[in-house]
Design brief:
Layout: E1 2-3, H1 13-17, E2 23-25, E3 31-33, H2 43-47, E4 53-54
Length: 56
Amino acid sequence: MIVNQKKCIGCGTCVAICPVEAISFDKNKKAKIDKTKCILCGACKASCPVSAIDED
């Protein structure tokens, strides 16, 4: 999964829903996904209100 930084509004929905805590915020308050932790479940993609997350 990858976050489109231009679309991300920093709402935190993906951070809250990630079952493995693979998502955090960067210095610009945009979501970033740790690919070493991500299990590709798609919960973040499904929950993003602005469709900023996609498969890479």
